Amino acid sequence: SPTEKVTRMKRLRKADGTVLALENSTLPARLLPDPTAVGDSLYEYLDGIGRPVVRALQHVRAINSSASDAALVGIAPGTAMLLMTRIGYLEDNTPIELTDTYCRNDYYDFVAELRR
């Protein structure tokens, strides 16, 4: 709903202390009144409250990092990044999550296997 209140979370995804990605998630505030309750996994949190994401549509594209995003992930402004935009859906096909993940290109690659 255009008038529904939302919760926005901004998280840095790390491995061994190195920032690999910046993640911005938006969910209905009624499902996530306290973002600190999430812990490491948003989907585990949603499972725990009985609202599991059962499918997601994800787009991947190349972008140049903004100065602010570059500073957060430790790269030079304008450096190429992969942007993954995901919409997660509940069992009844209600969209429940919008997440943009800005991935460092020196730590991420994506592989697609196509079959006939």
From TrEMBL:
Which SUPFAM superfamilies does this one have? Chorismate lyase-like
**Start and end residues of each UbiC transcription regulator-associated domain:** 1-109
According to its UniProt entry, the protein's GO biological process terms are: negative regulation of DNA-templated transcription
**What Pfam families has UniProt attached to this entry?**
UTRA
The cross-references to Gene3D superfamilies, in alphabetical order and at most eight, read: Chorismate lyase-like
The record's section on InterPro entries has: Bact_HTH_transcr_reg (IPR050679), Chorismate_lyase_/UTRA_dom_sf (IPR028978), UTRA (IPR011663)
Q: Which GO terms describe its molecular function?
A: DNA binding
The UniProt entry, under PANTHER family, shows: MANNOSYL-D-GLYCERATE TRANSPORT/METABOLISM SYSTEM REPRESSOR MNGR-RELATED, MANNOSYL-D-GLYCERATE TRANSPORT_METABOLISM SYSTEM REPRESSOR MNGR-RELATED
Tell me what this protein is called: UTRA domain-containing protein
Give the originating organism: Pseudomonas aeruginosa
Organism placement in taxonomy: Bacteria, Pseudomonadati, Pseudomonadota, Gammaproteobacteria, Pseudomonadales
